[in-house]
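Suppose you are handed a protein chain with no further information: no name, no annotation, nothing but its sequence. What can you learn? This example shows the usual starting point.
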Amino acid sequence: MRRLLSLLFVLVCMMTLFGCGKEPGEGLVNEKGQVYFNAIVLEANEGSVKVKCTEAFASGISVDEEVSVSTNVVASKGAPEMTVGDKIRVVFNGEIMESYPLKLGTVFAIYLLDENGEVIPND
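A reasonable first move is to predict its three-dimensional structure. Written in C-alpha cells, the prediction is:
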C-alpha cells in the first residue's frame, strides 16, 4: 500500500511539473508573435480604420466585434488604401485593449483580400 501511495505521489508531482507545458494564450500566436483576423472596413479615417471582424482565426476577437485598427503598421510597404466595404486581413501582436471599439497593440500589417478571401500582397 505504501509503495502504491509513493508511486501515485510521484505521478502527481510529474503531472504538476510537466502537464502544463503551454503558457496561457500560447497556440493563438504564431512563431513570430503574430495573430490575425479578417474583417470588413466600416469607416476609413486618417491614421485608422474601424472594422468588423468576419473571421477570427483564434485571434481573441469575436466575429462581428468592431475594432479600431491603426494604419500606422510595422510592415515596410505600409497599409494599403482602404475604403468602406473593403475586406482586409489584420496581422497584429495579439494585444487587445478593452474599449469600444476594441483597439489593438502593434499592428504588423494590413492586407486587402480578394473575392475568395485570399491575401492580395501589398506591392
